[in-house]
Design brief:
By secondary structure, the protein is an alpha/beta fold. The chain has a single domain, classed as Aconitase, domain 3 (2-Layer Sandwich). Helices cover about 30% and strands about 10% of the residues. The strands form two sheets. Strands 5-4-3-6 form a four-stranded parallel β-sheet, with helices on both faces. InterPro entries: Acnase/IPM_dHydase_lsu_aba_1/3, Acoase/IPM_deHydtase_lsu_aba, Aconitase_4Fe-4S_dom, IPM_dehydratase_rel_enz. Heterodimer of LeuC and LeuD.
Amino acid sequence: MFMSNPETLYDKIWRRHEVAKSDDGSALIYIDRHLVHEVTSPQAFEKLELDGRKVRRPDAALAVPDHNVPTTDRSHKIADPLSKKQIDLLRDNVKRWNIELYDMLDSRQGIVHVIGPEQGFTQPGLTLVCGDSIPLPMGRSVPWHLALERRRWNMCWSPRR
């Protein structure tokens, strides 16, 4: 059987998530899931607050402290003041915005780009963003990974006006 317009898996997922397309070819795509960690999220939460916006779908976000978590004994306080502040801000923000958190002593806590597939948060066919610098494809369950610049990151949570 001949297919007149065959599409790759990537094309099919993109098409199903495309919200709008500009004349220049750029597209706005719907993001299904958002992984959040303590290093890049404070800026995004602050921008939402300054703009008077809300997290549109807190149920589609999952937060985890990652980069500043002690690798040995997590029962002690975090020694570095900046690291502690980032984790405290993450806790405050997810509580305020009603986002699920896998905190430091939670058995599900781990590296932000590993916990998605490990915990079943990422699923085949979904789009996903994560403010992390490692451009991994989140295991086999996501077709691509978008590492976003901090100044653009808040657009993922901003409701359409």
